[in-house]
Structure to design on (789 residues):
């Protein structure tokens, strides 16, 4: 100990010097350790095992411990530690389960000293006793910890944690016989090396594996732990039960934790994945790091303070195959870049806003309350601590209250209960859901359902079956009282002119709809046509046109042509036309080939008012008047994404179910699964279990449909002997009595069975309901006061 004191004194007087520097390694590092005089560092990994000297300006390689033509797995290191009492002694934890010690004082190239192969799986951690030279502790993936005496060939004691793998072991800095071990099941155990049969204390430190632990170098009872739950916790072990005194929330799993020398409340951490930085935390202010080192480009695997009494130098190794020495003065201070404003919503919609006093002091409406806001006593001003190295910023808190009625979710519950997602034709589902949304004062959602019906419904569902038009469908349309001859002529174009050939037979597709010859019109101007039977002959002014004039109009004298309007009385229904007149063949060809004739113009080629047009149709329209459903899929996909991004996953999922295969292929499975899970979670929060189960059944995602296929087994006990029912049926195999007997009628219940969770008696649902209407006592006579809810 005297020798150690002399070394420490010499270092403190001269001081460790250097700068921020790094060197490239041959392979990624798994762990690093520094020698007691802070002049050398050892780096170990699967393919590297070297010692570097720490000089003023750079790292200098001193020794390569991987020797031999074919290095064995003993050189593949998961952890390494340099003894702090003996400068030539190192220990490594090998991935093949071996614990190896190395003597740097050996004259040969191979410095391996002793080999212990008692562990069956990878050794995760090795640790020397801080004051005993020959005592070495190891923790392995096999769940055992072993204590080795280096003067012997085998371990002197084995500690079984009765748990999963051991991730870290650390001797206490102050208690000679105590060490701590962390496990993958979230537990931390404290052991006495003199009692290997049972741990002294065990407590659950984290939810998930505990990857690391470290005893405080100055405070005897403080133990820091880090785990996969992204937390670093500080425990006070001096009490009867381990007490959590500090908790730091990080952004990734914590792989290493090391207390900072000479700083009671500071510790350094690095992450196991995702985050490459090294953070130094002040545990009294756990929400923002005190300092950050951002040099590494990959995950940091090992950190160690260069000297146990110097807080200014930190060494680190990484998977990016670099070794760094960090100077604390070069660290980034996140608090300097932190946003001094805070914003948070409360459980009932209240909004809290905190900002600098200087920003809010200009608000004349705000009334400051000294010592905190009296209306909200949970907020208070923190008393300044002179030992903290943080800048003090005084903030003011404003709380904005909201009306509870404005944030109610009644519309969500009612919509979920009233929506129809299956069981009816598509058009009826859309109409029903649109009506529900309209009644709940959600016009945009209602309009969306109506548009979906128009886009994806079969055209036959939007009109009466058949291709013919009739008056009943056009009753809501405005009446066409006049028609421009010029507009029709110019619309048809010169290509549509037809020569009259009265002597030729005609094949006309224009025919009258049977059964609709009786015309009914409420327009007073058309009283002359009311009650007329038979089919009409068309009169144009004073001259009667041939049938061919229904299809062609000659405009040879364009100069003499004048625009005029036909009176409606010109179209009078005369005698019945016995045969359906046909159009010439060249007429059909011209109409099909003419690029100027649209679908609507092909259907209407006569100058008639809307009443007469209602009697005329085309059996086979030249162009489909309806767009295919696939045309709207991109628009609907964007619409669903919009609703989901706005937080209305109810609408997104409901449309997804109702549309089914029409839209499902347009949206990737992961997005659908995310929407389904979000909606199901909301439904279950509102205890809408039936709706949730219906959504699960109607979904097509395999990850969703399996949700109601798990945990469907119900374990029951016999109502007579109270023992579990092991076989199927109604007879208990132990007492040989009928287990499910109705307490009212004393018959076996073969259908729905209801029972009291207090006394286990029950029976037919209807019988129990009727019984409890008149009596509160159990019908079995056990005296229990049953309650049916």
């Amino acid at each position: 100990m005297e020798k150690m004191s002399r070394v420490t004194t010499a270092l403190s007087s001269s001081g460790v010097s250097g700068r921020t520097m790094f060197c490239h390694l041959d392979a990624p590092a798994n762990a690093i350790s520094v020698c007691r005089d802070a002049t050398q560092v050892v780096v170990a990994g699967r393919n590297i095992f070297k010692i570097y000297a720490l000089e003023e300006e750079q790292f200098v390689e001193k020794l390569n411990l991987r020797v031999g033509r074919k290095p064995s797995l003993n050189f593949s290191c998961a952890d390494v530690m340099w003894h702090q009492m003996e400068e030539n002694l190192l220990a490594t934890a090998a991935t093949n389960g071996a614990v190896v010690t190395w003597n740097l004082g050996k004259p040969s190239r191979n410095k391996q000293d002793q080999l212990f192969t008692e562990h069956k799986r990878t050794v995760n951690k090795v640790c020397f006793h801080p004051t005993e030279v020959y005592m070495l502790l190891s923790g392995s993936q096999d769940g055992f910890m072993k204590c080795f005496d280096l003067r012997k060939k085998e371990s002197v004691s084995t500690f079984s944690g009765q748990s999963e793998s051991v991730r870290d072991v650390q001797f206490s800095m102050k208690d000679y016989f105590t060490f701590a071990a962390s496990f993958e099941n979230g537990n931390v155990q404290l052991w006495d090396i003199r009692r290997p049969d049972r741990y002294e204390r065990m407590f659950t430190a984290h939810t998930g594996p505990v990857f690391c632990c470290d005893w405080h170098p100055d405070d005897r009872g403080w133990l820091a732990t880090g785990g996969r739950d992204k937390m670093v916790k500080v425990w006070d072990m001096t009490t009867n039960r381990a007490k959590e005194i500090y908790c730091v929330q990080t952004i990734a799993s914590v792989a290493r934790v090391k207390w900072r020398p000479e700083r009671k409340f500071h510790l350094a951490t690095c992450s196991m994945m995702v985050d490459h930085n090294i953070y130094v935390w002040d545990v009294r202010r756990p929400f923002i790091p005190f300092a950050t080192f951002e040099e590494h480009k990959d995950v940091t695997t090992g950190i160690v303070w260069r000297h146990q009494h110097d807080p200014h130098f930190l060494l680190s190794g990484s998977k990016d195959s670099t070794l760094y020495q960090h100077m604390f003065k070069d660290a980034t201070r996140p608090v300097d870049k932190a946003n001094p404003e805070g914003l948070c919503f409360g459980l009932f919609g209240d909004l809290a806003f905190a900002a600098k006093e200087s920003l809010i002091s200009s608000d004349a409406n705000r009334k400051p309350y000294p010592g905190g806001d009296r209306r909200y006593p949970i907020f208070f001003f923190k008393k300044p601590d002179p030992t903290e190295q943080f800048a003090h910023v005084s903030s003011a808190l404003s709380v904005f209250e909201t009306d509870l009625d404005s944030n109610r979710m009644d519309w969500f519950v009612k919509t979920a209960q009233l929506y129809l997602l299956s069981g009816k034709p598509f058009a009826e589902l859309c109409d029903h859901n649109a009506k529900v949304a309209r009644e709940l004062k959600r016009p945009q959602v209602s309009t969306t359902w109506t548009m979906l019906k128009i886009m994806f419904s079969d055209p036959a569902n939007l009109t009466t079956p058949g291709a013919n038009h009739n008056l009943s469908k056009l009753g809501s349309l405005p009446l066409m009282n006049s028609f421009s001859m010029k507009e029709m002529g110019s619309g048809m174009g010169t290509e549509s002119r037809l020569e009259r050939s009265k002597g030729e037979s005609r094949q006309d597709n224009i025919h009258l709809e049977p059964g609709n010859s009786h015309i009914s019109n409420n327009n007073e101007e058309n009283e002359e046509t009311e009650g007329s039977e038979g089919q009409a002959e068309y009169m144009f002014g004073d001259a009667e046109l041939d049938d061919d004039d229904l299809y062609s109009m000659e405009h040879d004298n364009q100069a003499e042509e004048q625009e005029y309007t036909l009176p409606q009385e010109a179209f009078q229904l005369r005698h019945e036309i016995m045969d359906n007149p046909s159009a010439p063949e060249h007429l059909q060809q011209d109409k099909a080939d003419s690029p100027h004739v649209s679908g609507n113009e092909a259907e209407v080629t006569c100058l008639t008012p809307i009443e007469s047009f209602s009697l005329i149709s085309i059996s086979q329209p030249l162009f489909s008047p309806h767009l295919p459903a696939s045309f709207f899929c991109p628009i609907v996909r964007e619409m669903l994404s919009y609703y989901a991004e706005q937080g209305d996953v109810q609408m997104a999922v409901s449309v997804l179910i109702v549309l089914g295969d029409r839209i499902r292929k347009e949206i990737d499975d992961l997005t659908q699964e995310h929407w389904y899970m979000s909606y199901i979670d909301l439904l279950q929060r509102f205890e809408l279990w039936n709706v949730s189960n219906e959504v699960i059944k109607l979904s097509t995602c395999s990850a969703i449909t399996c949700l109601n296929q798990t945990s469907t087994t119900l374990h029951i006990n016999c109502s007579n002997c109270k023992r579990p029912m092991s076989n199927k049926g109604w007879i208990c195999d132990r007492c040989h009595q009928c287990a499910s007997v109705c307490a009212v009628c004393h018959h076996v219940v073969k259908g729905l069975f209801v029972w009291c969770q207090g006394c286990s008696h029950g029976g037919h649902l209807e019988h129990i309901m009727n019984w409890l209407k008149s009596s509160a006592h159990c019908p079995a006579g056990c005296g229990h006061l049953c309650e049916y809810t």
Q: What stands out?
A: The chain has 18 helices and 37 strands.
